[in-house]
Sequence to fold (367 residues):
Amino acid sequence: MNTESLFKPFQSEKLELSNRVVMAPMTRGFSPGGVPGPDVAEYYRLRAAGGVGLIITEGTAINHPSAVSGASIPLFHGEEALAGWQKVVEAVHEAGGKIAPQIWHVGMARKRGDEPNSEVAPVGPSGLDLSGNKVNEPLTEEEIQQLVQAYAQAVADAKRIGFDAVELHGAHGYLLDQFLWERTNQRTDRYGGDLVARTTFAAEVVKACREAVGPDYPIIFRYSQWKMSDYKARLAETPEQLEQLLQPLVDAGVDIFHASTRRFWLPEFEGSELNLAGWTRKLTGKPAISVGSVGLKSEFANRTEQVEEDDPAAHIDPLLHKLEDQEFDLIAVGRALIGDPAWPNKVRENRTDEIEMFTPEALQKLV
Fold:
């Protein structure tokens, strides 16, 4: 198996990587009190040593009381949490890797009573949950501006403590995505309306982040059609609509798009074999990261589903073809890297028979 296309160096205007393998962001929840400890640093260091070109961390909370659900989800604010993340960065760099934090607010995906601030209600563009039910009042414009600044502060802190890039989590039905999605954004002010108008909040966040870090720092934006609550949801039904969605984000300062799909080999629109990342690259001219079930033969409906007999190199051939055709630039690998931190090195060296396969039990510990 000739894996040359997977391990060619990547270079864009603002980011250089040793290869095309990205560690996908995956919530682990092993940061008590929101502070990543030495075990988190070692977890990411192992993936850098295992050959990943870029690590994107699990989602980390901006400085807002309802940003995440769970007392062990890492924060990205406060002296103690940021000091913990700085040690993560140092460990990854010592192993020769590069790393970006994923900056996150879950919005209305949060439930009332969730930790770490159980007394705080979830917030979102229209106060609607992911099913369209009213839970809270819509965010005021003042509250929206506070959120914009919280994102910008997190990105500024990422640059300050040595991260190589940053990713804004605008996918899967979380806060940024809730503004993009018609079901959860029923606003009638400038933050709501048609598809272009619904990009206003995300574009303001990107612009504020760009102003906070200057022109040369890489900003990645992750987005998806599907939501955690609805795998069939779509923001854009056509390439033309997708361009309307993405162009304001390009204009605001996004450098790289991370187009989240559940199966990277599936085409996004009829009449073309391009997947979502392929269309993103074609429409914007920006580098694109693809993702979805690399190295996994089984499909996982949930985290308790049993694993079948898996092929450790599952889907590698179509991946290589898409990279060779320059459909997208980078590929994010998720659970396969939980199963085996050295997955990239073993694939590159044609040692796939040595790959340790992912099992659901692997989610119970951080190794």
In short: The radius of gyration is 19 Å.
